[in-house]
Amino acid sequence: MSGRVTIVIAAILCITAMTLLYSSASEKETGTPADKRIARGKQLVIEGNCDYCHTPLVETNEGLVPDMKRRLSGHPRDAEIPRLPANEIGSPEWIEFLGTLDTTEWAGPWGLVFAKNITPDPETGIGKWTEEIFVETIRTGRHIDLKRDVLPPMPRQDYGKLGDEDLKSIFAYLMTVAPVRNAVPKPVPLPGKKSGE
Q1: Phi and psi (nearest 5°) for 107?
Q2: Which pTM value belongs to this model?
Q3: Which helix (H) or strand (E) holds 68?
Q4: Which one of 45, 63, 95, 112 is CB 3.0 to 4.6 Å from 188, fit for a cystine?
């Protein structure tokens, strides 16, 4: 009986050792630490639904779909800028999507805002940003390059709770997407207010 127990224990130990060796070899085969960081960033961008606000929609036979040629490029520069809904201005509760064909424009007590181009385009996106600038912008809620607050509906407070490694992973992934040249319009403040108030 004790011989059988010894054989069973030895078999379990061998299987465990082989599993550990195989999984460690698989991890090595899946890529470098940079590849893993980018993969984690991609997962966070998808799970965080960044495309919902930052990717314009395009009308197709199947209805509105994300325009992957302009993925994460923010509000299209050539789109008509809607008027603020005068009947709702001043209500502290209102927020609405005003898009004609996309969700890249929003209105609320802060005024009319447009989703930022978060592609690595160096002129109109975040291509000149460093990892440190990206993390600092999300943590503090201040646009380093624009010298103003990150405006709603960007869930900056939620993203600000992510760990540094996750924020760095998001930035690493964003630097791998196709750069799209698209200068997003500036926010339109409510009458009598400055942008960012």
Answers
A1: -125, 145
A2: 0.76
A3: none
A4: 112
